[in-house]
């Protein structure tokens, strides 16, 4: 109840006090290290609730699907009853988790996420919610299959990891990742994706 109230004021009437939240955020994140198994129950748009890492306690995922994510709910509903769905750039699972709940009983979600920090949260969120119809693929997806591609990634969860050189200016770490094509991935596994 307290978390819900703080989240509502953080993203509502007190949103304009960003300096206040900038001070509280690191304090909270330092404190939660003491409780490694703690999760928070959060809805992602109208779906869930899902158990998420305590790091996201004050994230406003209830509003996910508004603003720049307007196609979110249409995407999830389009996957309803399907048996092969792909989430490319799965991040921490904000699309993968709801997809896992709406696909057919024998269906599978293939979640592609090359960034290590995002993978950690994605895998943790799947385990916390006892979801076993998702396979996490840790390769980059691109036009060509390549053994080594420069990839700039944040040491924290981020939706801004990139192969573009601009990543070096953001202070992201330069790593090397294998890149695969969706055609080759699907051919090797005899998959016919119904939604990507």
Automatic annotation (TrEMBL):
InterPro entries membership: FkbM_mtfrase, SAM-dependent_MTases_sf
Q: Which SUPFAM superfamilies match?
A: S-adenosyl-L-methionine-dependent methyltransferases
Q: What is this protein called?
A: SAM-dependent methyltransferase TRM5/TYW2-type domain-containing protein
Q: Which organism is it from?
A: marine metagenome
